[in-house]
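Q: Hi! Curious about what Sigma-70 family RNA polymerase sigma factor looks like structurally. Here's the sequence.
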Amino acid sequence: MTDAREAIAQAHRKEWARVVASLARRFGDLDIAEEAAAEAFATAVERWPAGGVPPNPGAWLTTTANHKALDRLRREAKREGKHKEAQMLYDDVPAPPGTIDDDRLRLIFTCCHPALGMEARVALTLRMLGGLTVAEIARAFLAQESAIGRRITRAKAKIAAARIPYRVPTAEDLPVRVDGVLTVLFLVFNEGYLATGPGTDPLRPRLTDESIRLTRLLHALMPSDGEVAGLLALMLLIEARRTARVSADGELIPLDQQDRQVWNTTLIAEGHKLVRARLASGEAPGRYQILAAINAVHTSARDERDTDWSQVVALYDQLVLRDSSPIVALNRAVAIAELDGPDVALATVRRLEGSLAGYRAFHATRAELLRRLGRKEESRDAYGEAIRLPGNDAETAHLTRRREQLK
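A: Let's find out. The predicted structure is below.
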């Protein structure tokens, strides 16, 4: 029975997206796809422990789910109407050149369609492709379960009402649409990497694991897309540091103070390999590829003192040309502090105050720079500003301890 349960859990991780995507393509209805897939897995829970795990679990689940969907259509006496709806949602045209015509890829682009709000895209992607329950999504994003349920329901309804086609975008639309998908996946990852709200666990491995799994899937389907590879590398290199990022008593540990011996060397090696492959391609890197390269520099150093800060600054210089946001400028200033000194970096940080006054990391960075310059009172005030702004408890504990050390 234990083996059957493990097989079901493994099948859920590997096959959920494939089963749902196959059903969505056939029936053109996300509700039918989701419910039939869930029923198929429930049937597996009933039958596999007694009858044994089938030789091909994915095929068994897909066949069973198809039967469940057809049974539902017959019960509702709406089979003809549903097939018409399928023809509306599934526009059977050849896949654009250079893309892979895979049901899961179609489903990713449907869930992340720009006609949907960003919160709806995130929730729908996690439900339809990740297989997370509504309760799990609600817990991850500190939202009411009923609110998440309504968000997903409205998103499905909008897909049907707006006649959003279930297909890979055209060659002209693909670059923009891929960027939107990557934004969704990175948003999910960031919430797992460092939760934004107080009173909860600062790290949410289920979200980082799920975003990495979905990005791996996208990379497998679109292996030549540099930004997809870049985002996967970035996630892997950040995730590799997870076990070193929070102390036993729940305090955030900055990068320069982490125990690098506990970093995940397997993830680091995989991330570095992806970064090297993108460099060898000779193509101009995009935002995620540059961020991955920056993290590759950090994870290449066995000690913080071995970090090649000149390379980090050079990479940030490239990033600024593609993303001139104040947050990128703030992160560049942190690297400048290591290369040219905290006084030079502080001058840059001051110029960002107008746009980042409500951003906790801005005040925390300013506090650290003032601390290094020996300006204790100003540093204490800056720590206080950071602590007053919303954030998770691990960050607050670290900032509070740093401020108290200045007494």
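A: A fun detail: The two ends are 60 Å apart (CA to CA).
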